[in-house]
Amino acid sequence: MNKKHLKFMKEAVMEAKKGLKENGIPIGAVLVEKWGNCWPGP
Prior knowledge:
The protein is mainly alpha-helical. The protein has one helix spanning 3-21, and strands spanning 31-32, 38-39. The protein has one domain. It has a two-stranded antiparallel ribbon.
């Protein structure tokens, strides 16, 4: 896994933690476009 992938994985983990904190299902997902932007972002 390269540094770019790691950035997106960290964003997904943050989303999963946010869902768990809200007593939801901890699913972490981000959308990534080919230019390297991701949503949701920080």
